[in-house]
Task: structure prediction
Amino acid sequence: MYTQAMDTAPQEARKAVRSAEEAELEARFEARIDDGAFIEAKDWMPEHYRKTLVRQISQHAHSEIVGMLPEGNWVTRAPTLKRKAILLAKIQDEGGHGLYLYAAAETLGTSRDQLLDALHSGKAKYSSIFNYPTLTWADVGVIGWLVDGAAIMNQIPLCRCSYAPYARAMIRVCKEESFHQRQGFDALNVMMREGTEAQRAMVQDAVNRWWWPSLMMFGPHDSDSPNSAQSMRWGIKRISNDDLRQKFVDATVEQAKVLGVSLPDPLLQWNEARGHYDFGPIDWAEFWRVVGGEGACNRERLQARVDAWEEGAWVREAALAHARKQQTQAEAA
Ligand code: BYC
Result:
């Protein structure tokens, strides 16, 4: 007892000193956030800020690499060599985005193996949108136009995210996403202008299936978004889920007119007073079903990632063996 008492007093004193120090660090951190400063990996940050970033960045990274799968289904069936080359380049870009983002998450002290473990075991989330099937070639164009279009709308503000390594990664990602959105719009435009009646119907059918899931990409309404308030306060998110969704609708309705497709929402109409388009209610039950693992393709997507990881084990082992050999040779020289 006596010895314990001897130990306890200084420990508590140390704790008090540490928490006073921490309070000071936290106050300085909050002041930097208020000034609009960027936080670097080596800077002190509250544990909750770090955890929020790892959660968002890793989900984002997983979305990029799972997002390669629905489009990958169409590489062998692209209608022309030009479209195949564009699709291959786009899918390769998505893999690159995943890598920048995993690297950004690693700067926060979580290893890529931990992040991938969370994905493969089904614990980690990735964007709901990639759990829908790509039934026709028009789906590939619509993914570019609507899904990448929604992604850009969400990601441009992330270029000003308070965590600098994430913000820097997003600058390059956004440049590439812009090309992705345009190639999708272009592919659809060609089908709508030069295609057959059947091809135009195929585009309309794809738009009908992807419209609502694209609106869901922005996440729940602000009032139902548990993470938004704190993330906005910390400058991780700069624009809210609902505001981004509204910006997307406003921009996309005009693009749909140029394409000559209709959007599957009878309540979609310009609201002069608000200066925005009104749109119908989103089926949040469907959204949560998909996020919870019950979408049309959740199991297939996860299995494809696990298979790719397991089948690629020999490549990782060979790379490590090569690196070890080179190191031994360098040490011997
Ligand atoms: N799907 O409090 P909230 C791409 C979760 S890839 C699934 O609003 P937050 C592309 C959310 O995680 C584009 N889950 O959360 C790639 C949270 O759950 P937890 C991917 C969703 O983080 C290849 C809960 O719902 N983009 O474009 O403040 C080919 C409550 O939500 C979704 C990004 O990842 C969803 N849609 O805001 C083609 C952007 N929405 O974590 C294209 C980065 C919400 O508490 N991420 N949830 O268990 C973000 O900007 C934000 O994380 C979100 C959600 C706006 C998505």
About this structure: Confidence is low (pLDDT under 50) at residues 1-9. The CA atoms of residues 212 and 282 lie 7 Å apart. The chain has 13 helices and two strands.
